[in-house]
Amino acid sequence: MNMQRPDWLLQMEDILETxxxxxxxxxxxxxxxxxxxxxxxxxGFPASEVVGHNGISFYTEEExxxxxxxxxxxxxxxxxxxxxxxxxxxxxxxxxxISSRMFEDPDGLQFLVVTFTDxxxxxxxxxxxxxxxxxxxxxxxxxxxxxxxxxRVQQSLAPQSLVWGGMRVDAYFHPVRSIGGDFGLVxxxxxxxxxxxxxxxSGHGIGSALVANRIYxxxxxxxxxxxxxxxxxxxxxxxxxxxxxxSALLFTLAAARIDLGGRRMIxxxxxxxxxxxxTPGEQPRLLESRSMVLGGLSDAxxxxxxxxxxxxxxxxxxxxxxxxxxxxxxxxxxxxxEGVQKIVRETALLPFGDMQQAMLNRVAAWRDGAPxxxxxxxxxxxx
Length: 383
Hints:
Elements: H1 7-17, E1 22-26, E2 32-35, H2 37-43, H3 61-77, E3 81-87, E4 93-104, E5 110-118, H4 120-156, E6 162-164, E7 167-174, E8 182-188, E9 193-201, H5 205-224, H6 229-243, E10 251-259, E11 264-270, E12 275-278, E13 285-287, E14 306-310, E15 316-320, H7 322-325, H8 336-347, H9 352-366, E16 375-381
Helix pairs in contact: 5-6, 8-9
């Protein structure tokens, strides 16, 4: 259908053909006077099949209603730009941004200039992003389920409070994430000997937890065999270096074996914060590690790795990881061994059943903010 084009349009056609947006010009009856070549490509129709037709004749009745709603909302909002579709010759719909502007020519006739910006690539990217987000959410849900199961498994390995041979043992374990690199053991060998141990694997999260679980299993094997504590340290050090094979997998531990009959305790530490023995009302005695951090050097364990100490009725033994001692107040001062020693001295005056929570409360009061490291704590009262 041929329609007479006004002179100004004939003069502007060359300019309109240079635009990288589709352009449609309609007269006051909304019949199409012109489309540029960019819109021809988007539309799929040649200009000869479009010019003279009403601008909305290519849309379905339902699409016309939707477009009318966009136009009305745009008029109320004072804008003439909205996201819609462009009917394509093959029957598909091309996502576009439609902008329109009314103007008058020198003769007072009204014309409507409509531009169509192809946003199909953007829409495709959005669809791909939505699909990726759905997959990520599904994977996140799977990971969270796995972590929940891992946390339950690790919690089952946490040291347990018990009464053994008249002795009372209180134990506490708290990973800074859902799972962590700390673990503890409270394990009787027989009716006379009780093993206590806390271990701290470097790092946090899944990797540290996996390593901790491997070390836990090997430690249990060593303890069940009744191996001397110094030999256990050497075996654990050898096990990690040979089987896990990374100098980044470092760990510290403090282990004690209490002989109930003789009220004696053998202690062995490796790069770990000092254990403590406190008689209520007195300054706690420190049991320092004689060996270095394990997992990095083949000779980390000292020749005389273990020490033997006497225990008296009423004494309390304290083993802990550095999540207890290496905490900082608001001024950046670390609680440290001396701070823990002071807390142990003061809380040892309380009934044994209240000591653990009192220690944790005092550490939390010192700490600025939430915990940043895993925490393990084992307390024993000697009878």
